[in-house]
Amino acid sequence: MRVLGVDPGLTRCGLGVVEGAVGRPLELVEAGVVRTDPAADLADRLLGVERGVEDWLDRHAPEAVAVERVFAQHNVSTVIGTAQAGAVAITCAARRGLPVALHTPSEAKAAITGSGRADKAQVQAMVARLLRLAEAPKPADAADAVALAICHIWRGGAQARVAQAQQDFARKVELARRARPAPNPQGR
User: Fold this and answer.
1) Could you report the per-residue pLDDT of 61-82, keeping only the tens digit for each?
2) Which CATH number fits domain 2-179: 3.30.420.10, 2.120.10.30, 3.40.50.2000, 3.40.980.10?
3) Does 7 carry a binding-site annotation?
4) For the chain, is the Cβ count within 10 Å smaller at the N or the C terminus?
5) Does the annotation list 68 as a binding residue?
């Protein structure tokens, strides 16, 4: 499975593409950031993020997109910008019919390090180790995006199988319900 991880941000939107499967070695395809000028108009910055995400989607053709779920911080303007950049990435993926998953930072940390409270240095060290790299992708936003992609490969695949099993079960129940003879209102 090939996954594009997105660590949303207006100034630096981290992007990372990882290929792999549960129980198999992971491979880093590319990691980097889309940068926008903090002095530019918001609309232009969002267009810049969109162009960057679209370029990555074109070049890497992922099967899924994993975006960091925005959580509340003390700096409201940062949260809003992060949410807007995340929404752009989600829209780009949806436009192509790609499945999108949202993972919290602690979910990604737990998947990578075993602890949802790991610090950035621990996450970066494990990303490098898991991908057999001399060092973690730079800047930190790129490493975070790669961690999200890994998290999705390891956790998202299982979540997708559970969801598919639930859909299959619901479909079978509905087919069985339809196959039953209609009750005879006259009791015959």
Assistant:
1) 999 999 999 876 677 878 999 9
2) 3.30.420.10
3) yes
4) C
5) yes
